[in-house]
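[stage:ingest] chain + small molecule (zinc ion)
[stage:ingest] validated
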Amino acid sequence: RNDQRLFRSILILVPVYSPMTTLLVRHAQLLVTMDNQRREIRDGGLFIRDGFIEHVGASDGLPTVADETLDLSGHLLLPGLINTHHHFYQTLTRAVPAAQDANLFNWLKTLYPIWARMTPDDIYVSTQTALAELALSGCTAASDHLYLFPNGSRLDDEIRAGREIGVRLHASRGSMSLGESKGGLPPDSVVEDEETILRDSQRLIETYHDPNPGSMTQVVLAPCSPFSVTADLMRQSATLAREYGIRLHTHLAETQDEEAFCLEMVGHRPVAYMELLNWVGPDVWFAHSVHVNQEEIGLYAQTGCSVTHCPTSNMRLASGIAPILDMLQAGVKVGLGVDGSASNDGSNLLEEARQAMMVARLRAGLMGASRSGAQTPPLMSARQALEIATRGSASVLGREDIGSLEAGKCADFFAINLNHLEFTGALHDPLAAVVFCSPVHADYTVVAGKYIVKECQLTTIDQSNLVALHNQAARRLLNAP
Ligand code: ZN
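[stage:predict] done
[stage:export] C-alpha cells:
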C-alpha cells in the first residue's frame, strides 16, 4: 500500500514541478511556414516554449538562450505532416498474396477472415509500427480508423500504443453492423450489434477525447462504409457525435462497385445517401471521394464536408483518380491520407504528397487529351501537394493549432538534411526537391517540442525490437488455421 501511495504522489507531483522548457531551432537553410502568407524564410528558426511556438523567423531575430538548441544548418524545416486516414492494424497484412491483385470488394473479402483473428496485442504492435513509419516520414499527427474489434480488441489498445510513440492521435471508433446475412459485404463474424457500438463509442469519448489546443488524443466516430453499416447506425452515430461535439468520418464514393451497391440497396448515389442520413456538414469528412460529380463537389463545398485524398490506395486497388483540383477550386477542404497498409502498403506521408502531385497531373493530362483542341488543365504544384498534407489535413481534422509554423501554434515540425544523393541538382528549390525527388526519411520529427525522431532514429521506441515483434505477430496471423 505504501508503494501505491508513493506512486500516486509522484503522479500528482510531476505536473506541478515539471519545469518550463524551451527549445531554440535555428539556421534552417529554408523554413517553410505554410502560414497565411505562405512565407518561406532563409536561415530560419523557431523558439519553442512548453510545446508551443513563441517566435518564428530569421535566426538572427530569435532569442539566443534556451534549455536546448538544435542547429539545422543544411536542413529544410517544414510543418509536421498530418495523416487523415489510415488503418494501422493493416500493417500486419501487407502484400497478402491472394489480395495483391484484387479490387476493393475482393480484397476486403480475402482479408476480413484474417483480420478476424487479431488480438489486442496485434492492435498495439501494429499501431506502433504504423506511427513509427509515419513519424520517420515527417508526420506529427495522424487519424486512424479502426473498425473491427475481434477477440477482445479495443480502441484503448491503439490509444495506449499511440501515447507511447508520442504522435498526436485522432483515434476513430469505427464500426460495422451490416453483415452478409443482412445484405452487407463483411461476414457476420466481424460485425457488432449497434447497441454495443454506441455504448463503447460513448465510453471512449468520455474517457479520452480532449478538444483543447495542444490536444494529443481525440476521438472520432466512424461507421465504416455504406456497404458494411446500417442506415440506423449512421444516423445514431451522427446524433451521438453531435451531442459531444466530435467529428464524423467514413469511406465514401471510393469505387464504382460501392456506387452500384448504393443505387441498388438504397436507390441513391453515395453522396445523396449521406445527405439523407444527416451525414453532411463541417463536422464530417470522407475518405476517398473518387467517384463524385461536380454537383456533389458543390454540395461538399456548400455544407463544409471535407475529403481525405488517398492516391496510392486508389491506384493500388484500381479505384480511380479523385478530382482533387476540382474540389480545391470549389472550396472543399482536402487533406492527405496514406490509407491502410494493406492497400498502400506503406505509411510514408511525404511519399504520399508526391503521389498526390503525380496523379493529379495524370488526371489533368487525361482530361486535356479527351478535350480535343483544349489546353491541358492546370497541374498540381509541389507547394500545393505539401499544403494539402499540412494546412489542408489540419482543417480536415478541425484543428486550428496545427498545420503551419506560426506563433501560438503547436511546436510540430520535421526537418530533412538536404545533403542527400537524391536531392543533388535540385537545391535551388529545396521545398520542390523533397516533393519531386525520391522521398527520404526525416532527420528530425518533433511533436509538441519533443523529439520523436532525432538524427534519423526513433527516440520513443526501439525500432529493431518493434520489427521483430511485428513480424512475429504478422506470421501468427497469416499462418493461423
Ligand atoms: Zn480506408
